[in-house]
Structures are given as structure tokens and as C-alpha cells.
Design a protein that fits this description.
The structure holds 2 protein chains of 2 kinds. Chain A contains no helices and 11 strands. By secondary structure, chain A is mainly β. In chain A, strand 4 and strand 5 form a beta hairpin. By secondary structure, chain B is mainly β. In chain B, the strands form 2 sheets. In chain B, strands 2, 4, 5, 6, 9, 10 and 11 form a 7-stranded mixed β-sheet that branches. In chain B, strands 1-3-8-7 form a 4-stranded antiparallel β-sheet, with no helix packed on it. Chain B is globular and about 35 Å long. The chains are: A mainly beta, B mainly beta. Chains A and B meet through strand 4, strand 5, strand 9 and strand 10 of A and strand 5, strand 9 and strand 10 of B.
């Protein structure tokens, strides 16, 4: 089955860019997703990318997909303290077989 | 649009007791998921329903966990009897299959279970 890996911690200064990385093993995922989880809350969908795309930009968020290396990244421009949370990447095949990574805890320092 | 509702938000029980969680998905969402999220880990899928039929329950510990979605809307997840290692957050999610992007899931706030 799919295995998804992420670095567990990232610390950045307010105003800098954050880059959260994810690697996966199963190239059959149709979509790849980024979710955000704030303390005590459920997961919130941030953005997604279709597997035949290389890049997607959505306001401060940029998703890059390297299918050859099975590497997904999320770049947050102008990181704010409100961006402090745990970020999960996930892959799925048309609504099935969802597998989540362990999450990257982003800390934004003032 | 109302989100996914879950109750209770918190539950503390002793091992070997039973517990049940309830989920009401977003209106019109045919697919419903239950996840277990142990502290420090990503969510792990327990069971996925399409309307009131089970699509995937391969990771559900069936000797103690059960779930149902009788009318294709609300769902309950039960643990009987609970073990210490069941302490986790139980997340419910729903999706509208056929939409773009395919099956994007929307999550409820979760039920935090502590087994003593």
C-alpha cells in the first residue's frame, strides 16, 4: 500500500516562506492533497493537485509535484503566526485508498 | 453550508467499557469515512461507506470495532470493549463522489477518546 513520509518539524520566522515536503510511494494516486490541522480541530483542506500537473498556485500557497521523484511540496509565502499548525499531505485514488502522512508541525516565530 | 458534525467531542472511559461516536456528514455527501488519529500520527482510515454500503474496512479491528450507516446519512462507530491503545481522536469525514477533485474529504472536529 501507499506509504507517505514527511519531516516532522519546521520552524520559520514570520514573513519568511515555508516549504513543507512530502514523499510517497504509490504513483497511482489521482490527487494529492494538503490538509491543515490546528490544535483540537479537525483537518481542513488547504489545496490539492491533480497527478498530471506539476504546479498549482493558490494565493499564498504553491504546490509542486515531481512525479518522477514522487515528491510533493507545499510552499507558504509570507508565513504568518496563524499558519502555525500541523500540515498533512495525503494521496487518494478517486475518493478511495486515502493515506495520510504523519504530519509536519510548522512553528512560526515572531 | 453546515460542516460535518460529530458528538461527543470528548469521552473518558475505563478499559473494557463500551463507547459510541456519532457523525452527521455534509448534506448530500454519499461517502463517509471514519479515521483514527493517534497522538503524533496522521489519520488512519478505519472504514469507508458509500451510501449505506461498506467500501473499505480492511483496517477496522473487527473484533472490537463496528460501524453502521443505516439510512445512508448519519453513522455511528462503536468500540466494545475498549483497550488502552484505543485512546485517540476519531475523525469523521464526508465527500461528494463525482465532484472535482474526486472525493475531496471534509472533516468534522473529531471525538477525543481517553481510555483509562
Amino acid at each position: 500500500g501507499e506509504d507517505v513520509e514527511q519531516s516532522l518539524f519546521l520552524s520559520v520566522r514570520e514573513g519568511d516562506s515555508s516549504v513543507i515536503n512530502c514523499t510517497y510511494t504509490d504513483s497511482s494516486s489521482t490527487y494529492l492533497y494538503w490538509y491543515k490541522q490546528e490544535p483540537g480541530a479537525g483537518l481542513q483542506l488547504l489545496t490539492y493537485i491533480f497527478s498530471n500537473m506539476d504546479m498549482k498556485q493558490d494565493q499564498r500557497l504553491t504546490v509542486l509535484l515531481n512525479k518522477k521523484d514522487k515528491h510533493l511540496s507545499l510552499r507558504i509565502a509570507d508565513t504568518q503566526t496563524g499558519d502555525s499548525a500541523i500540515y498533512f499531505c495525503a494521496g487518494g485514488l478517486e475518493g478511495q485508498n486515502f493515506v495520510f502522512g504523519p504530519g509536519t508541525r510548522l512553528s512560526v516565530l515572531p | 453550508e453546515a460542516g460535518v458534525a460529530q458528538s461527543p467531542r470528548y469521552k473518558i472511559i475505563e478499559k473494557r467499557q463500551s463507547v459510541a461516536f456519532w457523525c452527521n456528514p455534509i448534506s448530500g455527501h454519499a461517502t463517509l469515512y471514519w479515521y483514527q488519529q493517534i497522538l503524533g500520527q496522521g489519520p488512519k482510515l478505519l472504514i469507508q461507506f458509500q451510501n449505506n454500503g461498506v467500501v473499505d474496512d480492511s483496517q477496522l479491528p473487527k473484533d472490537r470495532f463496528s460501524a453502521e450507516r443505516l439510512k445512508g446519512v448519519d453513522s455511528t462507530l462503536k468500540i466494545q470493549p475498549a483497550k488502552l491503545e484505543d485512546s485517540a481522536v476519531y475523525l469523521c469525514a464526508s465527500s461528494l463522489v463525482g465532484s472535482v477533485p474526486g472525493g475531496t474529504q471534509y472533516f468534522g472536529p473529531g471525538t477525543r477518546l481517553l481510555v483509562l
